[in-house]
Each structure stands twice: as structure tokens, then as C-alpha cells.
Specification:
By secondary structure, this protein is mainly alpha-helical. It is built from 12 helices and no strands. The radius of gyration is 22 Å and the shape is globular.
Length: about 290
């Protein structure tokens, strides 16, 4: 498929299976939004979060900022290791089944997602470890240069230069591993093998993959930004806690209705890559005869 055809297929898949895909996303995103809200409220940092999101005039104390940071970090880790992998895996399974003209259901999609959750988490941890290693190396080198130069400016300049130099490599790794999730879910591969399989599939198509992923990011970012504005706007004149509730609701709406577009697009990209490099369409035609 060309870029336009791929985007049209993504939105068509979403439109034709809207209830199923939205339900798959809501199964994990709505409870996560509720749990996050209860966590913020239970630890007493909800009003701080609301003020930090909506008003720069309210300065937090060091203890308040530390509490807010810890709660936000805990919510982010839970989302990264549980919520996002489950939603992505279940959506990928459902889209794959519909793409191959198979029956798809909420239960079957989540059963498949739970089976592949460990591999998806492993894949995420491998990538995070790589990012952490690169960041640590850059920081250590920058500190060393700063110490040798006798000042902070040298360290800052070194960190910026190294960051700019490493950025293309980080982008390349991101692009070449873009298909790891559908590989892990559809081909039942481990986290590491999913990454290496994605690397092989994307080889020779990196620029195309980068452009499409960037386009999907822009489209979902624009749609998500508009939805967040519409949902949050009515609470703009209310107190910090109300603004926080509105921001949480807006984030949940975007996660349920906009987030799946990326998963659909990536799943279709996976099949597009297999058709281009492995003749997958011919293989499927032969199986149907």
C-alpha cells in the first residue's frame, strides 16, 4: 500500500470495527484512569497535579513536588508495563483477525494479549535499558568533560553535542523496532526475537517507516489535542482539583478513542512489510485455494 492507502485502510478498519476496538481500549484505559485518580487523591497530591497542569502561579513546596513526582512515576510505570502492552496486544490481535477475515472478539483478543504480555514487557525493558545505558554514558562523559574543563558550561555543551550526535541512532533503533509488537503478538515470538525480527522486516524500508510513523504521530497528536481541549475547557475556570479531574477524563477519552489508531496503523504496516519482502499475500492466496 502507498502512504495514502495505508492511512485510508487504518481509518476504514477503525470505522468498521469501532465498537470492538473502542471496547478493547476501554477495558484497560478506563480502570487505569480511575486507579490513577484514586492514587492521586489517596496520596493527597491531586490538587498539586491540577495546579501544576493548569496554573504556573501556584508554586509547590519540595515535599509536594517530590510526592507528585513519585505518584506520577508509579502511574507511568504501571501504564508502561501493564496497561499499554495489554491494550496494544489485544488491539493488534483483533485488527490482525479482521485483516485476515477471521472472527474477532473482545475475549479472544484479551486472551491472546495476556499470553503475550510477558514478551511485550521484556521488549519494552530491553529498549528502556538501551536508552538508560546511552543516557548514563552521555551524562558520565559530560560530567567528566565538565570536571576536566573546570566548569559547568563545558559539561552542558558536551551533553548537548552528544545528544544531537546520538539522536539519529536512537531514531533509527525506534524505526527499525517499530514492528516488534505485532511480531510478538501475531508470530508468538519472545521479546528479543520480536525486536530482531522487526529489525529484519524494516531493513530497506526505514525512511518509509519513519515517515509513516511520524505522520501517524502528527495525526493522532492533532486529534488528541483537540479532544483534550474540548473535554478540559469547561473546567478551566474551576479549582485545581476540578481541573485535575477534567485533565484525567480528557486523557482517558484520548487513550480510548485516539490511541488505537496507532496500533491499527502499525499492524497494517507489519502486513505491508511482509507482503513487500516475503510475498505474504501470495502465501495467503495459496492457502485459500
Amino acid at each position: 500500500m502507498g502512504v495514502g492507502e495505508l492511512l485510508d485502510a487504518t481509518f476504514s478498519m477503525y470505522r468498521r470495527n469501532f465498537l470492538l476496538i473502542a471496547a478493547i481500549s476501554a477495558i484497560v484505559q478506563v480502570p487505569y484512569a480511575v486507579l490513577s485518580f484514586l492514587l492521586y487523591e489517596g496520596t493527597g497530591v491531586a490538587s498539586f497535579a491540577g495546579s501544576s497542569f493548569s496554573s504556573s502561579s501556584e508554586v509547590l513546596t519540595p515535599d509536594q513536588r517530590t510526592g507528585l513526582t513519585l505518584v506520577t512515576l508509579a502511574a507511568a510505570v504501571f501504564s508502561l508495563l501493564v496497561v499499554l502492552p495489554l491494550g496494544e496486544a489485544a488491539t493488534t490481535r483483533a485488527v490482525s483477525d479482521r485483516y485476515l477475515d477471521r472472527e474477532a472478539s473482545l475475549g479472544a483478543s484479551y486472551r491472546a494479549a495476556l499470553r503475550r504480555l510477558g514478551a511485550l514487557v521484556t521488549q519494552s525493558l530491553i529498549l528502556l535499558a538501551g536508552v538508560a545505558a546511552v543516557t548514563t554514558a552521555i551524562t558520565a562523559l559530560a560530567v567528566g568533560v565538565g570536571a576536566a574543563g573546570g566548569g559547568g558550561p563545558a559539561a552542558a555543551v558536551t551533553a548537548v553535542v552528544l545528544g544531537i550526535a546520538v539522536a539519529p541512532v536512537v531514531i533509527l533503533v525506534y524505526v527499525r523496532t517499530s514492528l516488534a509488537a505485532p511480531v510478538i503478538v501475531i508470530e508468538a515470538r519472545s521479546g528479543w526475537r520480536g525486536l530482531t525480527r522487526s529489525w529484519a522486516l524494516v531493513r530497506g524500508m526505514s525512511w518509509r517507516m519513519f515517515g509513516i510513523r511520524l505522520l501517524l504521530l502528527l495525526i493522532t497528536g492533532i486529534i488528541g489535542g483537540l479532544l483534550i481541549t474540548l473535554v478540559s475547557l469547561p473546567a478551566s475556570g474551576l479549582d485545581a482539583n476540578s481541573r485535575f479531574i477534567a485533565s484525567q477524563a480528557a486523557s482517558a477519552v484520548v487513550a480510548v478513542f485516539v490511541g488505537p489508531l496507532t496500533y491499527i496503523g502499525v499492524t497494517l504496516l507489519y502486513y505491508d512489510a511482509r507482503i513487500r519482502k516475503e510475498g505474504f499475500d501470495i502465501e495467503m492466496l495459496a492457502q485459500s485455494l
